[in-house]
Each structure stands twice: as structure tokens, then as C-alpha cells.
Amino acid sequence: MTFQRKSNCSTEKKEKVLYYADRLHLSAGYLSTIIKRVSGKTAAEWIDDYVTLEAKALLKSTNLTIQQISDELNFPSQSFFGKYFKRITGLSPKEYREKN
What we know:
The protein is mainly α. The chain has helices at 3-9, 17-23, 28-39, 43-61, 66-72, 78-89, 93-99.
């Protein structure tokens, strides 16, 4: 199974590059290098894109609390999820939900 398929199957969980590299029997550095060469994005950027898409979908289409979404996506805390989401989108999860 390719990295893209594995990461698509795991969008509900925030995992590190090492998680996918282990499953593909590669080093994290090598996986990231190959993915970047092929797609122009690092493996971490792919993971961030998929996790952010899932977070946006959950914020838009469910009544789950931000804490529940954080838990669903396997973040260590709601605070960490909020900072992660804001770093990528420019909005807090609450702001994103209110605007969408």
C-alpha cells in the first residue's frame, strides 16, 4: 500500500511520519524525501493536509465539541489541537466553525 493510501486511511488520526514509514518499512527521512521529490510536499505536509481536511469536515458537519474532535483526531490535548489548527488555517477551531 502506498503512503498516500495509508495516510488517507488514517485521516481520522494525527500520526507522525514515522508511523507511516514503519508500515512501509522505510526510514522517516527517506519517506519524506521521496514524497517531496514526487509531489513537491513533504510527508508531514501531506499528513497535515489530510488531518486539517478531516478537522474542517468535523467542525462543519457535526455537533461534536472541539474537545471531542481533538480526541477523535488523536491530539494530546484540546489546546494542542487548537494551536495546530490555527497554525495551518489562520483560525481557531471555534472561529472556523462560526464562519462555516
